[in-house]
Amino acid sequence: MGNRLTQISTRTGDDGSTGLGDGSRVPKNHLRIQAIGDVDELNSNLGVLLAEPLPADVRELLVTIQHELFNLGGELSVPGFELLKADAVGALDEALERYNSTLPRLQEFILPAGTRSAAIAHVCRTVARRAERAVVTLGAAEAVNDAPRLYLNRLSDLLFVLARVLNRANLDGLGGDDVYWRSERLARGAE
User: What is the b/e burial string over 96-130, where b = at least 16 CB atoms within 10 angstroms of the residue's CB?
Assistant: First the structure.
C-alpha cells in the first residue's frame, strides 16, 4: 500500500489527477475515485450521526462500521487488493437480524423523517445506496472484489432499520414511531 499522508496540500492533484494507494495516478473523475469519494461521504455522514445522542449499542455498531468503511475505501484505493473481509458482511447480517427482530412489521412505506438521528440515518442510507451504485459501476469496468458491494448493500438496509430503531429510542422527544407515507389507499380506508 502507498505511503500514509504526511502533508495534506501536495499540489500533485492540480493537474486533475490523484494518486491511488499503489502509487499509480488516475483522473479525479475516474470511476474508482468516484466510488472512493462516495464511501468517504458516507463515512463522514456517519460521523454526523455519531454526533447525535444515540443508544450505546447503536453508537458502538456505527463506530465499527466507520472503521470497516475505511477498510472498504482502502481496498478500493489499491486495485486488486483485499482489505474488507467477508466476516464484516456477516456482522451486518447479524445486526440486521438483531435490530429487525425488535421492530413491528411495516404496514406501509415510511418517510425519511422523525427524530434528527433517524433522519440522519436515512441520509446515510441514501449515500450508502449511491456508494453501492458507484462500486457496481466500477465493477462493470474493472475487477472489484464482492465484499465492498455486498457490504454497502447490507449497510443501506441496516441504516433503514436503524432509522426505525432511532425513532423508537426517541432520545430527542420528537419521535416514537415511524413516519408513515399517507398513501391514497390509506386515505380511502380512513373515510
Answer: beebeeeeeeeeeebeebbbbbbbbbbbbbebbbb
Q: Which residues of the chain have pLDDT under 70?
A: 1-15, 17, 20, 27, 174-175, 184-191
Please answer whether residues 42 and 138 qualify as being in contact, where contact means their C-beta atoms are separated by less than 8 angstroms. Answer: no
Let me know: does 26 contact 112? Beta carbons within 8 Å. Answer: no
Tell me the C-alpha to C-alpha distance, in Å, between residue 84 and each of 29, 81, 122. Answer: 24, 9, 24
What DSSP element (H or E) covers 26? strand 25-27
Name all contacts of 183-191 with Cβ < 8 Å and 24+ positions apart: 183/108, 183/109, 186/108
- The DSSP secondary-structure symbol of 14 reads T
- Strand 17-19 with 25-27, pairing: antiparallel
Cα 63 from Cα 57, distance rounded (Å): 10
Closest alpha carbon to 120 in 43, 176, 45, 180: 45
Owner of C-alpha cell 463522514: 44
Q: What pLDDT digit, counting tens, does each position of 64-113 carry? A: 999 999 999 999 999 989 999 999 999 999 999 999 999 999 888 998 98
Side chain identity, residue 169? A
* pLDDT for the residue 186: 60
pTM for the structure as a whole:
0.86
